[in-house]
Amino acid sequence: MASQPDDEQPEGLSARFFQKLASGVPGVLFTYWLSADHQSHRYPYVSDQVKELFGVEPQKLRENADSVFRVIHPDDAAGVGESILHSVRTLKPWCYRARLRMKNGEYQWYEAHSVPERQPDGSTLWYGQFHNIQHYKELEQHLRDSEAEFSFQAGFQKLIARLSSEFIHLGFGSIDDCIDELLRSIGAFFSVDRAYVYAFSPDLATMTNTHEWCAPGVPSLMADQQAVPIDDFRWWQQQIRLMESQSQVVFIEDTADLPPEAENERALLEQQGVSSMFCVPVRIRGQVMGFFGVDSLSRRSWRRDMADLLIIVSGLLSGALERNRLEEDLLNQSIRDPLTGLHNRRYLMPRLDEILAASNRHGDRFCLAMFDIDHFKRINDNLGHLAGDQVLMRFTDVLLAHTRTTDVVSRFGGEEFLVVFTGVTERDVQTLVMRIMEAVREEEWLVDGKALTVTVSAGAVCVSELTDEPATPEALIARADDRLYQAKDGGRDCLVDASGLSRI
């Protein structure tokens, strides 16, 4: 059996004197002995602080060191064991940091420093001390947290700056791509499973998922979230009202914790696999038009400032959407007739180019007809321009009632209107135009209480007719216009097309 070191105190010092000296040293002084076969160990000497700190009797440690090793945090125990063996092999100082369980059950960080000495029997004896470094560990953690927070905030500001720049330089018609990029960037930055934008209907009766980003492997919900009725979700209706009145965010840390009145909402979210979510309102021109949100499929603790951060994102979205709506309004004003609301010539010509290009590529059939209100100048001269405007608007209603959504209806200028009928033949267009002319005749034209007789003349042409010249928008319009004047010269209230003059 291996011999053990003497339990004598350092030469020239009495045990009592040495204990008093050790009591003034922060932490615990010790000598630690490990047998040559590593099967037994003990503390020949350990200062009394070991009892005050960890509730371990020094006398027991002089017999067996197991009790003090049992206060090491389970996650640190293996590392401590490896550090001992390394010191045995190399005879280098034994140093380690580990969490030790205090007398009150709390774990705190300690650091040990000791010097090894090989004994004649092959055992090893260390002389050293360990002391509390909890404060330094907390300071380290604080610094790490501060660095992480600084890095997070800097990253977020950089992200917002980039997205802001993209929205500033946003080209008309590209807002959807920019919103998709915003959702992707925000979703990845916050490590969520989904990021999305919903739009409310004007009456707040339904909501529609307009944009969505999903993390890899996360199923999309967008297809099932179109025009979703809100009536069945009373709790959610309340949240919408709070969004409107108080700009309140919707924060759900765990769907299982939703109140009883949110039973339907909880069932839907569980069906979608959503455990946590965060939503903030999106305003356009001061009105809540929808919301921006993020989902997590697992329960998570959100940052305390998450609402503030997502409100910044929402503000970016709101500004972009408001700008886009303004640009759409301006575009509509530029391509629509202010009186009738129909598309004008500025819209018609490039649209006719597109239709003609599709016809050249795929053989798509189309025809166009030009209408002119007969004796319109008399109406303006006899009844005034306001009366003339009323006639123009009534005729617009007739055109829209007797054309399809696929047709292009435009005010070409003055009392002239042009309709592009898609997917029709020469025979079809004759029927369609005559139907419009008949509807004009049957319409009851009352202007300021005065009954009027209103008729229209029309000229029609189909793209298939232009075999002797290149088919261009200008060539088609010119031929339709020429036939319109033939109709007016032929007595008005008639149609001239490839077959000649026709009356109702």
Summed up, what is this model?
Helices cover 43% and strands 24% of the residues. The chain has helices at 15-23, 49-54, 58-61, 66-69, 74-90, 134-168, 175-189, 234-246, 263-271, 306-335, 345-362, 376-383, 385-401, 426-442, 473-489, and strands at residues 28-34, 41-46, 94-101, 107-118, 124-132, 194-200, 206-214, 228-229, 250-252, 276-284, 287-296, 366-373, 408-413, 416-422, 445-447, 450-452, 456-462, 495-497, 500-502.
Mean pLDDT: 88
Largest sheet entry: 6 strands, antiparallel
Total count of strands: 19
Helix content: 40-55%
Across the major sheet, the strand order is 8-7-6-11-10-9
CATH architecture call of the largest domain: 2-Layer Sandwich
Assembly state of the chains shown: single chain
CATH fold field value of the largest domain: Beta-Lactamase
Instruction: Please report the distance between the alpha carbons of the first and last residues.
Output: 127 Å
Our estimate of the beta-strand percent is 15-25%
The helix-and-strand class reads alpha+beta
Rg over alpha carbons:
43 Å
What's the level 1 CATH class of the largest domain?
Alpha Beta
Describe this structure in words.
This protein has helices spanning 15-23, 49-54, 58-61, 66-69, 74-90, 134-168, 175-189, 234-246, 263-271, 306-335, 345-362, 376-383, 385-401, 426-442, 473-489, and strands spanning 28-34, 41-46, 94-101, 107-118, 124-132, 194-200, 206-214, 228-229, 250-252, 276-284, 287-296, 366-373, 408-413, 416-422, 445-447, 450-452, 456-462, 495-497, 500-502. The protein contains 15 helices and 19 strands. Residues 7-13 have low confidence and may be disordered. A hairpin with a 5-residue loop joins strand 6 (194-200) and strand 7 (206-214). The strands form four sheets. A six-stranded antiparallel beta sheet has the order 8-7-6-11-10-9, with helices on both faces. A six-stranded mixed beta sheet has the order 13-14-12-17-18-19, sandwiched between helices. It has a five-stranded antiparallel beta sheet with strand order 2-1-5-4-3, with helices on both faces. Helix content is 43%, strand content 24%. The chain has three domains: 15-132, Beta-Lactamase; 144-332, GAF domain (Beta-Lactamase); 345-502, Alpha-Beta Plaits. By secondary structure, the chain is an alpha+beta fold.
